[in-house]
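Weekly structure sync, notes
Attendees: PL (lead), two postdocs, one rotation student
Agenda item 3: pending single-chain targets
PL asked that the sequence for the first pending target be pasted directly into the notes so everyone works from the same version. It is reproduced below exactly as submitted, 228 residues in total.
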Amino acid sequence: MSYILEGIKRAALLLANGDPEVFSAVLLSLRVSATSLALASAVGVPLAFIIAAHKFPGRRFLTMVLNTLMALPTVVVGLTVYALISRQGPLGVLGLLYTPKAMILGQVILATPIVSALTLAAIENVDPRARETALTLGGGMMHSSLAVLREARFAVMAAVAAGFGRVIAEVGSAMMLGGNIRGATRTMSTAIALETAKGEFGLGIALGAILLTVAFSINVAFHYWQKR
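Predicted structure, written out during the meeting:
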């Protein structure tokens, strides 16, 4: 119990003193997570609308695949992407391994099914009359989709927030693809794993407290945006 209290005190000191390594990890975590979430949303939300708006063979199967991929293990993603972008892999010439770009790629793969599956569930719960009314008033596919989006906006925002929660605390693929390089690819979650492995439980708890504070602050912002 004492080292938990020590960790909380240490977290306050690290933030108060503006520890450069901590702030570097925080900023990188936010940059990688925000970029990953933006890309995952750009793919996942339209994909959900396409699946919801069309009846085609295999639609139910595709929905089940998306729901299954929500539980995709991070180490599996890390291993798969590593095999693709390593020097011996087909994308090795791009030099992505052990860079933030590699971490973003892994996190996009993790977040996209979550955003897409939850958005799809939200759209399917919207009253069908919203789309029908938009079409009756002369709106095309784009306008009818926007009408549905307005009706489901709170649930879609919740889907995006869930995607953010998935990537901000992600460790497995970030460690494998980024290498946990100090000042380059070390995020809050990988720093926690490193410090804990070294036996620095106080510092690990301090970083964990900071991670939870940042995640809570971002979710407060999401909640405020929903109300607007």
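Discussion points:
- The longest helix spans residues 20-53.
- The CA atoms of residues 109 and 205 lie 28 Å apart.
Action: rotation student to compare against the earlier draft before next sync.
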